[in-house]
Write a structure and sequence with these properties.
By secondary structure, the chain is of the alpha+beta class. About 60% of the residues lie in helices and about 15% in strands. Among the domains are: about 100 residues, CorA soluble domain-like (Beta Polymerase, domain 2), CATH 3.30.460; about 60 residues, Methane Monooxygenase Hydroxylase, Chain G, domain 1. It has a seven-stranded mixed sheet with strand order 2-1-3-7-6-5-4.
Length: about 325
């Protein structure tokens, strides 16, 4: 899809060169080869293909050709609860602001609405302002995602360390396994956001080194603020990564405790079953001379002895807290 985002007017699709008149921002969303060629014809700028945007070297992500600056970064996107990072390309010249993306992003939609309503404190009338505003909108969106991820981690933490535990089989089957899945998703999310923040930070550093805003004091100040915001978000991501690892270790620790409890139960059952089995084996021997063989109460005596050999270890293990809940 090849879109135009005019200021003060709604977004519209570009089907011919005339549709791009009086527009600075050209937006290609999962474009076909024909749409890329049309954009090249409209702007007179050679546009990179997806393979070039997916390059990881800094020299391939940020470079200048004549008066045109080429920028690219991966941006995280959640589609059908699956986390994916897609490449985003930004091409800026004196006349054009061109974006190449392969997924719909909330930040781009927000900026499009800002342009259509012209609802900003500054004029989005030229390319440098469009560029810095897009970077700010992307960082704000990543901050919102991090904030939601932080709330999710807080919920997971309460689940892991809650004092009220559900029944053992329910906790083993559902809570702990679900907690591991959520922690894995949180770890993937923080890693992807870190990658996106790193890409935005590198774009900001490249623009600063290239002195792209050299004669625009206001935009220079906003770029510095953007850098500080990215740095603070990176610190937050690092803290979340540590918390994810801590909760993962704690969850695995609880799983180990449950496994140990299961082994204790098996030990109790095995020990309790050994003694009566031994007694039954002794009194089941067919020796001619056995003191209890002719005893009238021998049968009841053996049963009582076996019952006592079961109850006494159970009582001892219960006193030691190996099973049951003595607080009730």
């Amino acid at each position: 899809m090849f879109l135009a985002h005019p200021v003060g007017r709604p977004v519209h699709e570009i089907l011919a060169a005339d549709d791009a008149q009086d527009v600075a921002w050209l937006d290609l969303v999962d474009p076909t080869e024909d749409e890329i060629r049309l954009a090249e014809a409209v702007s007179g700028i050679a546009l990179p293909r997806r393979e070039a945007l997916e390059e990881i070297e800094s020299s391939s992500r940020h470079y200048r050709k004549g008066d045109v600056i080429y920028l690219s970064t991966p941006l995280v996107r959640m589609i059908n609860e699956a986390l994916t990072a897609y490449p985003v390309g930004i091409i800026v010249s004196e006349r054009w602001f061109i974006t190449l993306r392969y997924a719909n992003y909330t930040a781009f939609e927000t900026m499009s609405r800002d342009l259509a309503a012209n609802d900003v404190d500054f004029a989005l009338s030229d390319v440098p302002e469009l560029l810095i505003h897009l970077l700010e909108t992307v960082v704000n969106r990543l901050a919102d995602i991090l904030e939601n991820a932080g709330h999710s981690l807080a919920t997971i933490s309460r689940t892991v360390f809650t004092s009220t535990r559900p029944r053992r089989h329910v906790r083993n089957a559902d809570v702990l396994r679900q907690t591991l899945r959520e922690l894995g998703a949180s770890g993937d999310l923080t890693s992807s956001i870190r990658e996106s923040l790193l890409g935005v930070d590198r774009i900001g550093m490249y623009l600063g080194d290239a002195r792209y805003f050299e004669f625009r004091d206001t935009l220079q100040a906003r770029l510095r603020i953007l850098g500080r915001d990215v740095a603070s978000l990176n610190d937050y991501v690092a803290q979340m990564t540590v918390k994810v690892q801590f909760l993962l270790d704690a969850t695995l620790g609880f799983i180990s405790i449950d496994q140990n409890d299961g082994m204790k139960l098996l030990t109790v059952v095995s020990f309790v079953g050994i003694t009566p089995t031994l007694l039954a084996g002794i009194y089941g021997m067919n020796f001619k001379i056995m003191p209890e063989l002719e005893w009238h109460y021998g049968y009841y005596y053996a049963l009582c002895l076996m019952l006592a050999s079961v109850l006494l270890p159970l009582f001892i293990f219960w006193r030691r807290g190996w099973f049951g809940d003595r607080s009730k």
